């Protein structure tokens, strides 16, 4: 009997029985416009990215959500490559090394660059970079390493130049990397979210989200903590991974409060059950309702 209890249970669900969470939560989220749909009347407004004038109306040229800044109306595409702005926080993966710089994938149209002069040397030493530093670049960061950084410059072609001079930036250790549409990341003062559950979430504006345990001894730069992560921390990280994926699938904006509320709602389910459509729908609905009640929903 004990052997039968230990056997894994396989649940089968027909495609016709699956739930589309987007249909259920539309009343709690901004409407998603389709190309050619009317955004606003032209009088009193200016057309921005993703829009075009048509007679007396402003219409969407891409599928996405409306953004208004004073009289400027634009439509932010839901699924597109990241177009960065100076000062934004990004998470990236090192893909190569060139002369005095690392090539970094930041989900943007072109490859990004992190120059040797734009990083903190080990120990925070302040001096000119030498030939020896250039020879040791692969010891600092190598292909496959994940980093958090800030956009320092944007070229006329659209390629990004990064820097990690602040101690909060640098090589990332052990955790989970998620990819979500960049349009779902809400811009805020801080994209480094230390949650009450004991985990840290770095919300890269480029759509790369890093989930890890909070490292109290993190000093930035190239020091990577490779200690064994506690089982409780691994369970928390895995739960957050499922929670963020559920929010992203339903097009709910990602920021510290929405993730914290969703995590609290998820505690009534096991980590495995969070993969089920019904559980994800309930999680997202409860989170969206709470955000709307507090006036935090978009």
Automatic annotation (TrEMBL):
Q: Where in the cell is it found?
A: Nucleus
What keyword terms does UniProt attach to this protein? Exosome, Nucleus, RNA-binding, rRNA processing
Q: Which PROSITE patterns match?
A: S1
Chief location: nucleus
The superkingdom of the source organism is: Eukaryota
- Care to name a GO molecular-function term for this sequence? RNA binding
Q: Which GO terms describe its cellular component?
A: cytoplasmic exosome (RNase complex); nuclear exosome (RNase complex)
The record's annotation in SUPFAM superfamilies points to:
Eukaryotic type KH-domain (KH-domain type I), Nucleic acid-binding proteins, Ribosomal L27 protein-like
Protein family: Belongs to the RRP4 family.
PANTHER family hit by this protein = EXOSOME COMPLEX COMPONENT RRP4, PNAS-3 RELATED
This chain belongs to which protein, by name?
Answer: Exosome complex component RRP4 isoform X1
Taxonomically, what lineage is the organism? Eukaryota, Metazoa, Ecdysozoa, Arthropoda, Hexapoda
């Amino acid at each position: 009997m004990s052997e039968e209890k230990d056997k894994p249970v396989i649940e089968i669900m027909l495609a016709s029985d699956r739930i589309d969470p987007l249909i259920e939560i539309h009343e709690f989220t901004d409407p998603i416009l389709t190309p050619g749909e009317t955004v606003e009347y032209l009088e009193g407004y200016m057309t921005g990215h993703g829009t075009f004038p048509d007679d007396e109306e402003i219409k969407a040229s891409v599928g996405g959500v409306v953004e208004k800044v004073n009289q400027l109306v634009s439509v932010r595409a839901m699924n597109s490559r990241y177009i960065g702005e100076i000062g934004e926080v990004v998470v990236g993966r090192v893909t190569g090394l060139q002369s005095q710089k690392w090539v970094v994938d930041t989900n943007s149209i072109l490859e990004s660059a992190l120059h040797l002069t734009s990083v903190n040397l080990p120990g925070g030493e302040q001096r000119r970079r030498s030939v020896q530093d250039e020879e040791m670049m692969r010891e600092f960061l190598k292909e496959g390493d994940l980093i958090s950084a800030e956009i320092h410059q944007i070229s006329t072609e659209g390629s990004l130049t990064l820097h990690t001079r602040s101690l909060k930036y640098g090589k990332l250790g052990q955790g989970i990397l998620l990819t979500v549409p960049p349009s779902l990341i809400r811009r805020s003062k801080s994209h480094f979210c230390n949650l009450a559950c004991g985990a840290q979430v770095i919300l890269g504006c480029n759509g790369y989200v890093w989930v890890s345990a909070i490292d109290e001894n993190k000093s930035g730069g190239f020091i990577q903590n490779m200690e064994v992560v506690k089982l409780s921390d691994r369970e928390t990280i895995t739960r957050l991974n499922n929670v963020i994926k559920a929010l992203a699938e339903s097009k709910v904006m990602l920021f510290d409060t929405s993730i914290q509320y969703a995590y609290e709602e998820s505690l009534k389910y096991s980590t495995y059950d969070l993969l089920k459509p019904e559980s994800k729908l309930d999680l997202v609905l409860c989170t969206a309702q709470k955000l709307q009640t507090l006036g935090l929903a978009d």
